Amino acid sequence: MHANQLAEIGSWVAVHSANLVFGQPSQSLSTANAYWTASKCRLQRWITALKMFENDIEHPSEGHDPWPAMETVVEEILLSEFLTRVWAASLLCHDQYHDSDELHGLAHSTFVSHIEARNRAVRLLLASQGTNEEAFDRINLLRRKLERWTDLFMAQLPNLIIAQQFSFNPERVSDFYNERRQDAGPTVVRRQQVLMASFAADMNALSSYSANPVFNRQIASGVLRCFPSNRFDSTGLPKSARMLWIEKSQNDTQMLVDELADFETKSLGTSARFIS
C-alpha cells in the first residue's frame, strides 16, 4: 500500500471521526497494539534509511545517486504523517469524551516518534538541497500542501481544541472549523465529499513507489478495525481501503458466529447439569 493511500484513509477518518468518538465507548486493545507495532517497525526502517542517506550525502561517491531512494522514503514520511496526526487526534477525542485512557497513549507515542522522523528528514533535505534542487522543490511543495490539507481535515473533528493541538496552524484550523459549522444537512455531506475527492486527486499525482507497503497496509487495517462495520450504509472509503473494509466485515461476522457457537455450547452444558 502506497502512503498516498494512507493519506486518503486519513481524510476518511477525519470526516467520520464523530462515529468513532461518540460510538463504542471501548475498543479492542489489540487493535491499538497492532497499529503501534506496525508503526514502530516502519519507523525503525525509516531511521535506518535516513542514517544511510546522511552518510551518502556527507560522503558522496561517483556513480551513486541517493536521491531517488531518499525522495521515496521522505515522501512516505510526509504523506503518512497525515494519518498519524488525524488518528492520534481522533483517539484523544474518543478517550476524552468517554473519560478513559484506553487508546490514545499508543497512538500519541506513534505520533511523537513520527514527528521526530519527520524533523530528521527535513534536516536531511536542507543539508542536501544543493545537490538536487529539483527533487528538493518537489518534496518541499508536497510538505507545504500536506500541512494545509492536514489543517483543513483537522477542522472536521468534533473537538476544536484537540484538533488544534495536532495541527500545523491552530488559527487556520479555527477558521476552517467555524466555516464548517455554518453548513447544515446535505451541504455538510457534499462539502466533505468534495474535500475528499480533491485531496485524493492531489495526492494521486505522486510517484508509484512505496518504501514500506506491507507495514502501511497493516497500519491502515489497524485503523479501520476501530470503526464498526454496521455504522455505514455507504462507507465512501477510498478504493484502496475497500478490500481492507471487506476483510474487517468478514472478521466481524466470524467473531459473531464464534461467540454464538460458544454461547450455545455453554447453554447446552448448563442445561445438561440441571437435567442430571
Structure report:
With 276 residues, the protein is mainly α. The protein has one domain (3-275). It contains eleven helices and no strands. The chain has helices at residues 3-15, 17-21, 29-58, 67-97, 104-128, 133-154, 160-165, 170-181, 186-203, 213-224, 239-275. Helix 1 runs antiparallel to helix 9, helix 4 (67-97) packs antiparallel against helix 5 (104-128) and helix 4 packs parallel to helix 6. The longest helix has 37 residues, at 239-275. The chain is globular, with a radius of gyration of 21 Å. The protein starts with a helix and ends with a helix.
When the domains are counted, the total is: 1
Number of DSSP-assigned strands = 0
Categorize the overall geometry: globular
Q: What structural class results from the helix and strand content?
A: mainly alpha
N to C succession of SSEs: HHHHHHHHHHH
Report the uncertain regions.
242-250, 252-257
Largest sheet: none
The average pLDDT score comes to 82
Alpha-carbon distance between the two ends: 58 Å
